[in-house]
Structure formats: C-alpha cells, structure tokens
Design brief:
The chain contains three helices and no strands. By secondary structure, it is mainly alpha-helical.
Length: 98
C-alpha cells in the first residue's frame, strides 16, 4: 500500500516540477510525472530489498528525493537536447540555407 502512496506523491512532485521549470513546451505533460513515479518506485523497491522498512524515514526521503532530482535533471536536459536536434534537422531539411 505504501508503494502506491510513493508513486502518487512522486507523480505529484513531477507535475509540480513541470510547472516550475522553464522549457515545458519541449515535452509532454505526462513525461515528468511518469518518470518521477517510475524512479521513486524503483528506488523504493530496491531499498526494501536491501532491508529498509516501509515505515522508516530514510526510505521515504531516498525515494522521493531521487524522484525530485531526476525530475529536475530531465526538465533541464530535454529542452536543450530538443533544441539542438531541431537545429540539426532544420539544417538537414533546408540544406544549410536557413
């Protein structure tokens, strides 16, 4: 049951990050919430396998912290990469005239 809570909270964190960082027109509305939820669930399960308990503080901090960090990294990296790819594609399509 706690995994469900972690996924929902992480998706909410991803949605908040989406609307607080510039460049959100470069990716879809579901990218950051879904990546954030996936990262939090993987970290949560990994820490459970390593022996942390679901009612401990550190498992929550680690899972939600990792989700937040990855959301900010993706929010910063995707717009830059897309702008670069768009420039390359424009040069290819126009033959370097644009």
């Amino acid at each position: 049951m706690e995994l469900l809570f972690v996924v929902i909270i992480a998706a909410g964190i991803g949605a908040i990050v989406r609307y607080t960082v510039r460049g959100r027109t470069s990716y879809g509305a579901a990218l950051l919430p879904s990546v954030s939820a996936a990262v939090a669930s993987v970290v949560w399960v990994a820490l459970l396998w390593l022996g942390l308990t679901f009612d401990g503080t550190w498992i929550w901090v680690a899972a939600l912290g990792a989700a937040t960090v990855v959301s900010f990294v993706i929010a910063a990296a995707v717009p830059r990469a897309r702008e670069q790819r768009d420039r390359v594609m424009l040069a290819e399509l126009t033959g370097g005239k644009a």
